[in-house]
Design a protein that fits this description.
mainly alpha, two-stranded antiparallel sheet
Length: 267
């Protein structure tokens, strides 16, 4: 007797039990619909990031990312895994798949499920495919707001990567799609704000810039802070300009106050 990864006993030479095989077949059958939704989601990115003047660590101006990179990454990971499994299986079937898309690769696996069940690595396929499809489903969900944390800035062979980084607002890390460097989002936010710390600009420009880095200031709040004396204009320019660091400090202080009030109210 042989044994499936789940612990169930199987006939000699069979390494995927009927229950695990049924689950794998179900996943492969569901794959078409999930991928179809995923492909539709790839061009969908958050449009909440403002166009126009920006403050960034590199000084460059960038527009919001035009694609849903989370969906694209999920799709690429799924395709890569399916290709790897089909390539391994080809060594035993002697038959090459004629299609390289996800649907075609899934069909190949379904067609040769009998051969797949004889592989000692077959028990890993269902679990890994389930994880990848869950990531695809998550990527199909509506995307949250994206922020801008400047251009990548990694240097390779004296060439600086200027790809814009646009993580989700609550994302901890982001990987540059061009050079592959992984960045800490909060650290990038601090660096970007620091680069423009003493600069002055008009309220609309400052509010758009701060929004890119996750700090939202409403126009009425800005006006109220000026009225209360929390913010003082720089010079006698028209329209009036204010220092970025001062606006950031007031906005952060007010956000902390709101947080304390909510905690006190038990919200």
């Amino acid at each position: 007797m042989s044994q499936c990864k789940c612990g169930a006993e199987t006939p000699d030479g069979i390494h995927l039990c009927h229950a695990c095989c049924a689950r794998l077949e179900q996943l492969l059958c569901e794959l078409d619909g999930i991928v179809e939704d995923l492909v539709s989601a790839i061009p969908r990115a958050s449009l909440t990031a403002s166009y126009g003047e920006r403050v960034s660590a590199s000084g460059s101006l960038h527009a919001p990312l035009p694609i849903n990179d989370t969906a694209l990454d999920a799709h690429m990971a799924l395709d890569k895994y399916l290709r790897e499994i089909c390539t391994r299986l080809t060594r035993y079937t002697g038959i090459h798949t004629t299609r390289r898309d996800s649907s075609g690769l899934a069909s190949y696996l379904l067609t040769h499920m009998g051969t797949l069940r004889t592989q000692d690595w077959a028990g890993d396929v269902e679990g890994q495919l389930s994880k990848l499809l869950n990531k695809c489903r998550q990527a199909n969900q509506p995307q949250g707001e994206r922020i801008n944390v400047g251009a990548c800035g990694s240097v390779f062979n004296d060439v600086t990567c200027d790809n814009p980084l646009n993580p989700l607002k609550n994302q901890d890390e982001i990987r540059c799609r061009v050079c592959g460097t992984t960045w800490d989002v909060r650290e990038r936010q601090r660096d970007a704000i620091g680069a423009a710390w003493t600069h002055s600009a008009t309220p609309p420009v400052i509010m758009r810039a701060l929004a890119e880095y996750g700090m939202h200031v409403r126009p009425d709040s800005f006006k109220n802070w000026v009225k209360l004396g929390h913010l003082v204009a720089v010079g006698d320019t028209s329209p009036k300009e204010y220092r970025v660091n001062e606006v950031w400090a007031v906005a952060k202080r007010m956000a902390e106050r709101r947080k304390v009030k909510k905690q006190a109210a038990g919200l």
